[in-house]
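note to self: dont lose this again. the chain is below, predicted strucutre after it. 177 aa total, dont forget to put it in the shared folder this time
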Amino acid sequence: MGLTYDFDIVTIADESETENPEAGAQVAGRQVYAVFRDIRTADALRRASPRIRRIFVDAGFSLDSRRTGLECDLYPAEDAEARALILRRLFDNIRNRGVQGQYCGAFDILAFLQHVRRAQPLPRRPVQERPKPAALVDADAKKAARRSIVGRVGFALGLAVILFVVLKYLAAGGATP
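---
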């Protein structure tokens, strides 16, 4: 079974937490990296020549991996901007530095490029709107009205029982109202 070249975009909160702050890409003020989903792909890139590794790391790829559970050839639509920036930097690095004659090992650059062409964004999930406060107020008012009817009936029955017990007590004592 061959390597899978799927990768995800990871946001790093603070530049001081990264080992290599000049790597990665700035997107909307965030430091982002591309991380392969398959550990075997990340291992293959780590075993490639130092020049190939440097081309990928300088573009914004991390040599780590992480599982996300997404299907092959799909990526979150919200990552499209950061993904395009990292890939543009990678292609510039390949064009400027060249990869001809470099040892790639099990990492197949052509298969990686085919994957980039094949990958599609996931459809965005519809944003669920929260109920409006007026709707909540109406629902609470209806619920309160139902509760008040039950409460009124319960109160009336309780009062009737208490009144009946008092009258029975007075009748037993010989007093009549």
